[in-house]
Design a protein that fits this description.
InterPro entries: L-lactate/malate_DH, Lactate/malate_DH_C, Lactate/malate_DH_N, Lactate_DH/Glyco_Ohase_4_C, Malate_DH_AS, Malate_DH_type1, NAD(P)-bd_dom_sf. With about 350 residues, the protein is of the alpha/beta class. It has helices at about 1-10, 40-45, 60-70, 85-90, 115-130, 145-155, 170-185, 220-230, 235-240, 250-265, 315-335, and strands at about 25-30, 50-55, 75-80, 95-100, 135-140, 165-170, 195-200, 205, 270-280, 290-300, 300-305. It is globular, with a radius of gyration of 19 Å. The structure holds nicotinamide-adenine-dinucleotide (NAD) and (2S)-2-hydroxybutanedioic acid (LMR).
Length: about 350
Amino acid sequence: MFARNVARAFTTPSSRLFSSSSARHTKVTVLGAGGGIGQPLSLLLKLDPLVSNLSLYDIRGAPGVAADVSHVDTHSEVNGYAMENLDAALEGTKVVVIPAGVPRKPGMTRDDLFNTNASIVRDLAAAVARVAPTAHILVISNPVNSTVPIVAATLEKAGVFDPTRVYGVTTLDVVRASRFLASVSGATPSECDVPVVGGHSGPTIVPLLSQVSKGKGLQGEAYDTLVHRIQFGGDEVVKAKDGAGSATLSMAYAGAKFANSLLRGLNGEKGVITPTFVKSPLFADRGIDFFSSPVELGVNGVEKIHPIGPLSAEEEKLLEACLPELKKNIEKGKAFVA
Ligand code: NAD
Ligand code: LMR
């Protein structure tokens, strides 16, 4: 009863997490389900009424997580798969969420994770290409600016890349921007829906505070401090966890929130728009072919990539700082697969 009430609470029209608009339900697979993000994300996906089957895979611990989560009294079926059963985990899945890979420790950049995570993500993407070639792939593993191009290039190599079905999950930046602006402005987070564009690391994270009423008046030190906090919110958590990893609970929330947006779009709900890092024409003329901007999600996935809209002078500078770094990260990912 409690779980049903929680799920119902999450699906009220004013909800910030889940909403359900129609009856088509979907199989979702989590790759890395035993980890710090994977476990709470699996729980939140179990509460999402649009998920019919939850398939949990990890190189260790997934059957245990699945047995645990499967007792929650919502309608979806849960199955856990051990290391040797990756193909079975992916069979017939519509949506694949990937939080597999190592997290940062204090003093590391996300790019420092590249050497370990690039091959993990590439190998998982190759399995998706083979077993579930039409699945939508949500990439959480860092460095997102490089792992998304790695997934795209791997699918391309397998002849199954469709740019409308590969997403870098940048929702945590949007969640942070909303929460942090609410803190300084005294408004509620729902009044602070800040578009965050670019990529997902330090200076590539570009919050567009001028586009929301609660943010447009901020100037000087207050503005600089808020932008810095949004860009480096991940470091705040890494430092506080003191060697035990990076954001897991807020990321699970953000991942479940993005997954629900996608599922609503796939179900035919109109007007589902949220920033995500996708193959994008917006800065192709600068040699950058992946970029996060508000994207409309629909029955085929990426329906429409919206432009970033008018920028303040400060935001123009942030964007100029973002683009070269982002280009480097994207090229590194592509080169890894080539
Ligand atoms: P974690 O170490 O707690 O969990 C990672 C899990 O991945 C482990 O259970 C591990 O066994 C599993 N794994 C490793 N190789 C695998 C493989 N080949 N197949 C399946 N599973 C595999 O780490 P975490 O805190 O959950 O973070 C995971 C990743 O998410 C990190 O790269 C982290 O930087 C990233 N992250 C991204 C965001 C974002 O905003 N996109 C936010 C937070 C963390
Ligand atoms: C975050 O933004 O919290 C994640 O990308 C994890 C990290 O390494 O900071």
